[in-house]
Write a structure and sequence with these properties.
The chain is of the alpha/beta class. Helix content is 36%, strand content 15%. The protein contains 5 helices and 6 strands. The chain has helices spanning 2-25, 51-59, 79-82, 104-118, 136-143, and strands at residues 38-43, 63-66, 87-91, 122-126, 157-158, 163-164. The chain has a 4-stranded parallel β-sheet with strand order 2-1-3-4, sandwiched between helices. The protein is globular, with a radius of gyration of 17 Å. It starts with a helix and ends with a strand.
Length: 165
C-alpha cells in the first residue's frame, strides 16, 4: 500500500511537471527531450512536508531528496543544492524576525527560489501558519510578487452554506 501511495505522489508530481512544461512552452513549441524528474522536499521543520516520504521514494530509486531537520531554519538554500532538481516541494519559508522584517536567510532563500523558477524549475508551494506570525512575512515576500495571496489574515465566508473557514 505504501509503495502504491509513493507511486501516486511521484505520478502526480510528474503530471504537474508535464502540465507546467506544456503551459510554459505553448502548444506550438517543439517538444523538449524528457528530463529525469528530480524533486526536493524542504521548508519549515515543524511541519511535515513529506521529508520522510521523500526518503522512502529515494530508497525506491526516484531522484527525490528531503532537507533534514531543521531544513530552512538551519541554513539558507544554495544554488549548488537547488540546481540538481527540477521541482521543489516547499512548505513555508521559515520565520522572520520578531518585528516581522525578513532575515538575511529569508531574503537569500527567496532570491534563490526566484532564480530557480527563472531557470525553468517548478515550485509546489504549500503555505502554512501555525501560532507564530513570524511565519507569514517570508511567505508573503515570496508569493505576493508572483500575484499570489495566501489569505492568512482573511476569514473566508460562504453565505450559501453559512460557513466560515
Amino acid at each position: 500500500m505504501m509503495k502504491m501511495t509513493r507511486l501516486l505522489i511521484v505520478g502526480a508530481v510528474a503530471a504537474w511537471l508535464g502540465f507546467v512544461s506544456t503551459a510554459v512552452q505553448g502548444a506550438d513549441a517543439p517538444p523538449t527531450p524528457a528530463k529525469e524528474i528530480s524533486v526536493l522536499f524542504t521548508g519549515y521543520p515543524h511541519f511535515n512536508c513529506g521529508f520522510e516520504m521523500a526518503g522512502r521514494l529515494s530508497k525506491d530509486g526516484f531522484a527525490i531528496n528531503g532537507s533534514h531537520h531543521p531544513a530552512l531554519e538551519g541554513q539558507a538554500l544554495t544554488w549548488e543544492q537547488l540546481k540538481k532538481y527540477n521541482v521543489i516541494v516547499l512548505m513555508q519559508l521559515g520565520q522572520s524576525k520578531a518585528d516581522s522584517s525578513l532575515t538575511d536567510k529569508n531574503k537569500a532563500n527567496i532570491e534563490l527560489l526566484n532564480k530557480f523558477m527563472a531557470e525553468g524549475g517548478g515550485i509546489f508551494f504549500i503555505p502554512g501558519l501555525c501560532q507564530q506570525k513570524t511565519q507569514i512575512p517570508p511567505q508573503k515576500a515570496f508569493l505576493n510578487p508572483l500575484g499570489l495571496d495566501p489569505l492568512f489574515e482573511k476569514v473566508l465566508f460562504d453565505p450559501e452554506n453559512s460557513m466560515k473557514a
